[in-house]
């Protein structure tokens, strides 16, 4: 065992000394390799954590939402729908919801206005998300005016600000009293944006949805499990896009790495001949090369992964912000809970370390065919 | 110490370019002596050294090292024997460029699994003996021809071999350096090592440091 | 100077060991952070339940990116039937697969 360790140490020393001969080239390769792992690991960690966050936070979102469609657009729920639904068996509780979008021309951002059904916002006041607090410089007790689509100016006092660490779901929210909401948007009395329902027996949700669709043919039921499924699969496809964009880079790198690792130059072949002549076995040469492959690829994987971990969970995935933000003005500041998909990390590690190491080893069969006496004949 | 009996070495056997490098060599080499194999280029000197040094196996005939038949040993054992018992100084020195003198010297010890500090101390001692201590960390391509050869000698000695094999050691050296080299060899023989070298340099053959000269021509041993 | 460069190389293995340790630590750190974050997640879940929130406020550009789960397949093309998607994030999230589930069913019944 002791001998084995000393042997590996000596082989590693030689490998490192060999690599150090082309320091710039090998460090460059390591840097590109690390960067590639960093990007892939960042995407994987970020999307997995976000998916997890979404499904947990939205676990108790409304069980069933009923929208009305007119000519392929959402339309207001007219009076009378609540009564019709009330006749469907299995519906335990239902509420008409009031919410909509408001475009703020001052900063060119969209807000989500909402009248909570719990009705805990006083008339003339609003509760805002912390994204709004930041972007409009609002504090508690300050006033703000919004010009309604009718042209009329409405003033509100900021009564409260939603918790900062809820930004991921509440950054753009403006909560107000239901009457204020109706006045502001000119909502006719008795109309709602949509209806939320809860069903007594969770296993009946699908039946109730089917009954609703039959009873109100212009309606569209949305089930909570479908909402959750939307978020469980969100970014699955984004990862696909990132991979597609990256695949060119990955391929280019693969060619570079293959060329670098698999190409046995005349110089290297000569060196292997020398090593064999001075008493190295083919196995020693292979072990030495194995260390070379493992050292480079494992270092790249570990550094790339660690950088990605810090980037996603400590720096808030700051490099993704421009991509995710797109054209929107309001971008939530949020911290993700580090849910790590172990399988994804193992997969990434596998595909980082194994192919490169294999590429390093491939040309070694040639070393095996190099006769030790070749060194005498050069 | 080394006995060869009717040893032949044929390259590209059975092909149109078949070449008999050695043709029926019978030879016995004593321990603790400096033996020179001399002859014109193409006479089979180098091939003979590769057989003696376990770098290659004879096509036919027997080779014995310390009474043990080595002509039929598998590659693995041959390598181990070579590592333990033989040190090589090649004509082109065959140092690995880009590595320091010390790293080159330590190379043959790598597969042995000896503790690093021990190998390093031994390398330092050898380089010191060969007056190269000050060049220990210099890359070998920065060294002069004589210094490179001394690095090669130190490398050949790192595993403490019984036999030192040198192929045309003075071919790349001027007269002064060649004399220095012969002085070093003399020291080895008196220190109990067997030295076998090939050369066609009169300086070597006539040197007092060489105890025995074997003449070769066309793959055979000829009388002096 | 040369001795120093040799020593630098000797640092590679310890550095690699540190990186390996860091790799392992990242999982420990993640577990600790998860514990810390549990309170926040619970609070957010309660807020989402109280307000009936259905979506993340990640993309606020358009209603079908702000509330992808509430959007339908027409939303992305509301400007014109042949309009190309023009919000960057719109091209990053797919329309929800369930959008037409019940519309399909009603259409099938009419046949």
Question: What features would you describe in this structure?
Answer:
- The complex is a heterotrimer of chains A (378), B (224) and C (111).
- Chain A is α+β, with helices and mostly antiparallel strands and 378 residues long.
- In chain A, 54% of the residues lie in helices and 17% in strands.
- Chain A has two domains: 2-57 and 233-377, no CATH class; 77-192, Barwin-like endoglucanases (Beta Barrel), CATH 2.40.40.
- Chain A has helices at 2-21, 23-57, 81-86, 130-136, 167-170, 178-185, 205-215, 224-232, 236-262, 266-277, 282-313, 321-325, 342-361, 364-369, 374-377; strands at residues 64-70, 73-75, 91-104, 109-115, 125-128, 143-147, 153-161, 173-176, 194-199, 219-223.
- In chain A, strand 3 and strand 4 (109-115) form a beta hairpin.
- In chain A, helix 2 (23-57) packs antiparallel against helix 8 (224-232), helix 2 runs antiparallel to helix 13 (342-361) and helix 9 (236-262) packs parallel to helix 13 (342-361).
- Chain A is elongated.
- In chain B, strands 6-7-8-3-9-10 form a six-stranded mixed sheet. Chain B has a four-stranded antiparallel sheet with strand order 2-1-4-5, with helices on one face.
- The longest helix of chain B is centred in the C-terminal third of the chain and has 16 residues, at 175-190.
- Chain B has a single domain (32-50, 84-222), classed as Rossmann fold, CATH 3.40.50.
- Chain B has 224 residues and is of the alpha/beta class.
- Chain B is built from seven helices and ten strands.
- Chain C is mostly helical and 111 residues long.
- Chain C is 57% helix and 0% strand.
- Chain C contains four helices and no strands.
- Chain C has helices at residues 2-10, 12-51, 63-66, 101-110.
- Classes of the chains: A alpha+beta (378), B alpha/beta (224), C mainly alpha (111).
- Chains A and C meet through helix 1, helix 2, strand 1, strand 4 and helix 5 of A and helix 1, helix 2, helix 3 and helix 4 of C.
Supply the key terms:
heterotrimer, A: 378 residues, alpha+beta, Barwin-like endoglucanases, ten-stranded mixed β-sheet, C: 111 residues, mainly alpha
SSE inventory with pairings:
The complex is a heterotrimer of chains A (378), B (224) and C (111).
Chain A: H1 2-21, H2 23-57, E1 64-70, E2 73-75, H3 81-86, E3 91-104, E4 109-115, E5 125-128, H4 130-136, E6 143-147, E7 153-161, H5 167-170, E8 173-176, H6 178-185, E9 194-199, H7 205-215, E10 219-223, H8 224-232, H9 236-262, H10 266-277, H11 282-313, H12 321-325, H13 342-361, H14 364-369, H15 374-377
Parallel strand pairs in A: 4-8, 5-7
Antiparallel strand pairs in A: 1-2, 1-9, 1-10, 3-4, 3-9, 5-8, 6-7
Helix pairs in contact in A: 1-11, 2-8, 2-9, 2-11, 2-13, 9-13, 11-13
Chain B: E1 2-11, E2 19-29, E3 34-38, H1 45-52, E4 60-65, E5 68-69, H2 75-85, E6 86-89, H3 101-106, H4 116-129, H5 145-157, E7 163-167, H6 175-190, E8 194-199, H7 202-205, E9 212-217, E10 220-222
Parallel strand pairs in B: 3-8, 3-9, 6-7, 7-8
Antiparallel strand pairs in B: 1-2, 1-4, 4-5, 9-10
Chain C: H1 2-10, H2 12-51, H3 63-66, H4 101-110
């Amino acid at each position: 065992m002791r001998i084995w360790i000393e042997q590996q140490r000596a082989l590693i020393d030689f490998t490192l000394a060999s690599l150090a001969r082309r320091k710039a080239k090998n460090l460059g390769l390591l840097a590109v390799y690390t960067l590639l792992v960093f990007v892939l690991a960042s995407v994987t960690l970020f999307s997995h954590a976000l998916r997890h966050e979404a499904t947990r936070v939205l676990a108790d979102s409304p069980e069933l939402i009923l929208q009305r469609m007119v000519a392929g657009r959402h339309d207001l729920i007219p009076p009378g729908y609540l009564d019709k639904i009330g006749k469907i068996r299995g519906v335990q509780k239902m509420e008409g919801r009031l919410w909509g979008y408001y475009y703020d021309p001052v900063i060119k951002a969209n807000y989500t206005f909402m009248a909570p059904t719990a009705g805990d916002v006083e008339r003339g006041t609003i509760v805002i998300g912390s994204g709004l607090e930041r972007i409009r410089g609002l504090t508690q007790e300050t006033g703000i005016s919004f010009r309604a689509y009718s042209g009329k100016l409405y003033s509100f006092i900021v009564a409260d600000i939603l918790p900062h660490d809820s930004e991921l779901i509440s950054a753009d929210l403006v909560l107000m009293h239901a009457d204020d909401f109706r006045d502001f948007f000119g909502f006719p009395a008795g109309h709602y944006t949509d209806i939320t329902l809860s069903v007594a027996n969770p296993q009946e949700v699908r039946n109730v949805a089917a009954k609703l669709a039959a009873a109100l043919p212009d309606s569209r039921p949305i089930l909570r499990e479908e909402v959750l499924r939307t978020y469980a699969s969100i970014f699955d496809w984004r990862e696909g896009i990132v991979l597609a964009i990256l695949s060119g880079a990955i391929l280019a790198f693969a060619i570079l790495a293959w060329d670098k690792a698999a190409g046995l130059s005349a110089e290297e072949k000569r060196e292997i001949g020398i090593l064999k002549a001075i008493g190295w076995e083919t196995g020693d040469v292979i072990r030495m090369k194995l260390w070379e492959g493992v050292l480079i690829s494992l270092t790249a994987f570990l550094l790339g992964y660690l950088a990605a971990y810090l980037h996603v969970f400590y720096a808030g995935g700051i490099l993704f912000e421009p991509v995710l933000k797109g054209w929107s003005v309001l971008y939530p500041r949020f911290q993700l809970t580090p849910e790590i998909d172990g399988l994804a990390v193992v997969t990434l590690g596998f595909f980082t370390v194994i192919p490169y190491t294999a590429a390093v080893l491939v040309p070694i069969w040639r070393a095996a065919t190099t006769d030790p006496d070749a060194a005498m004949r050069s | 110490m080394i006995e060869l009996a009717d040893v032949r070495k044929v390259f590209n056997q059975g092909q149109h370019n078949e070449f008999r490098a050695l043709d029926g060599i019978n030879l016995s080499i004593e321990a603790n002596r400096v033996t020179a194999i001399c002859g014109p280029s193409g006479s089979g000197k180098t091939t003979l050294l590769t057989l003696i040094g376990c770098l290659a196996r004879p096509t036919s005939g027997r080779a014995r090292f310390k009474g043990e038949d080595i002509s039929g040993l598998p590659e693995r054992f041959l390598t181990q024997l070579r590592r333990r018992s033989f040190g090589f100084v090649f004509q082109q020195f065959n140092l690995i460029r880009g590595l320091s003198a010390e790293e080159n010297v330590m190379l043959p010890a790598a597969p042995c699994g000896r503790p690093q500090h021990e190998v390093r101390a031994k390398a330092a001692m050898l380089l010191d003996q060969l007056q190269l201590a000050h060049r220990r960390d210099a890359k070998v391509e920065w060294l002069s021809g004589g210094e490179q050869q001394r690095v090669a000698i130190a490398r050949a000695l790192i595993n403490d071999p019984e036999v030192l094999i040198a192929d045309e050691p003075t071919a790349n050296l001027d007269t002064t350096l060649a004399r220095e080299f012969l002085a070093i060899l003399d020291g080895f023989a008196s220190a109990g090592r067997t030295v076998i070298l090939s050369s066609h340099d009169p300086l070597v053959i006539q040197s007092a440091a060489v105890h025995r000269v074997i003449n070769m021509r066309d793959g055979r041993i000829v009388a002096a | 100077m040369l001795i120093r460069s040799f020593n630098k190389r000797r640092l590679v293995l310890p550095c690699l060991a540190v990186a390996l340790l860091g790799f392992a630590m990242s999982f420990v750190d993640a577990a600790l952070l998860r514990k810390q974050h549990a309170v926040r997640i619970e609070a957010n879940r309660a807020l989402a339940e109280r307000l009936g929130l259905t979506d993340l406020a990640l993309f606020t550009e358009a209603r079908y990116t702000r509330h992808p789960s509430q959007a339908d397949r027409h939303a992305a093309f509301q400007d014109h039937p042949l309009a190309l998607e023009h919000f960057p994030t719109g091209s990053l999230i797919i329309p929800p697969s369930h959008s037409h589930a019940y519309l399909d069913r009603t259409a099938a019944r009419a046949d």
